[in-house]
From TrEMBL:
InterPro entries: Solute-binding_3/MltF_N (IPR001638). This is Transporter substrate-binding domain-containing protein. Residues 33-253 form the Solute-binding protein family 3/N-terminal domain. It comes from the Bacteria. Keywords: Signal. Residues 1-26 form the signal peptide.
Amino acid sequence: MKKKWSLILMAGLAALVLAACGQKQAETKTPHVLTVGLEGTYAPYSYRQNGKLTGFEVDLAKETAKRMGLKPKFVTTGWDSLIAGLNSNDYDVVFNNMAENTDRQKKFRFATPYVYSKSIVITKKDGAIKSAKDLKGKKVAEGTGTDNWNNAKKLGANPITSPAFQTSMDMIDQGRVAAAVNSREAFEYWKKSHPDTDLTYFEIPTSEVKASKIAPMMNKKNAKLQAKMDKAIQSERKDGTLKRLSMKYFGTNITDK
């Protein structure tokens, strides 16, 4: 009888250990690893330099994972399949200039924002677009499903699909569209390598389009992961890491409200 109770006790302990392991593993796709989804083609957020993945969000994700006690692993994919990859658990979180909006908040969980991005209109210097009101009815180049696409529609524009930032600039140059709604940081970075461009920009008043809150996006089930990520990013903001990374890649601080 004594032996029987010992076996029952051991089985119970084993079940508890397995349950604990299962809970720990459930926090990330792979134990001790934070798998991060991103495009890797949107400089300076994430891009390749001499074949190596780098950029603001790459460094940020590495530092965030480190503070969470996890090893970062990056999965690059096109914008069109980025959110689908999160739904199918190809990665734990997306660091890809993801703006919080109502539709995404219904389906996904966002950690603490790390960027507050103002929207601009990029157009030709001698073009007819002089204010956001001039976009009404005009074709603009935007990534399908992006917040820029949504903002362009709010302004009455007609968004045309563009797979990448460079493509959007080419579409304006070629006269295929009148403009693009995008982030000031992305244009300023692009302009450094295109000093002779005749493209320019103006800011959209925040009364018309609010500054976007950019944050890590993950599945609804990852409440524990979000709590740890919140803590890590808040510590990065407090000790100046966020500002330092912003100055490194953008030359200005875009991490404050």
